[in-house]
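Standup notes
- DV: blocked on the single-chain target, sequence here:
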Amino acid sequence: MAHPLVEQLRFARAEFQRGLEGVTEEDGSIRLLPSNSIGWTVAHMATQERAFWVIWPQGITDVAPELDAWQGPTTPPLSEAWVAWRAVTEASDRWLDSLTEGGMAEHLIVNGKPYRESVGTMLLRAIYHYWHHIGEAGAIRQQLGHADLPQFVGNLGTEAPYRPGA
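- DV (later): unblocked, structure below
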């Protein structure tokens, strides 16, 4: 069983996906200032996870290289952003599944120095980052006139309930 924080990250990812179900390619490329496009947001979350869980701890640099071109105020195609996000989360999960309680306190080495936050704090940052963008994407969808948007938070009690640390 994965560490409880990893389970919470997976729940946040699932809620992110649920919140963006039904967004068309066209709507995913619309940028309503000052917000970024939904396509950018998907790529942005993939970029964070790629750095945190693929490049820095595993040294793998060839997963979703297209993300590098989608930084800044770009509007990547939503379908391509989802392909990159899925590749990154799959590559991330192999490493995340190996985390132990002791590993949560460790600091990854980035550019030859310990990263400023522990792995556990990085997990919290990624989880909260997802929730920020879930809300932002919901607001964008409302502005685009989408109806019947999902209500948050979803099935937390059954999909990601509290459990003590591993």
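- Follow-up: The beta strands are 109-110, 113-114.
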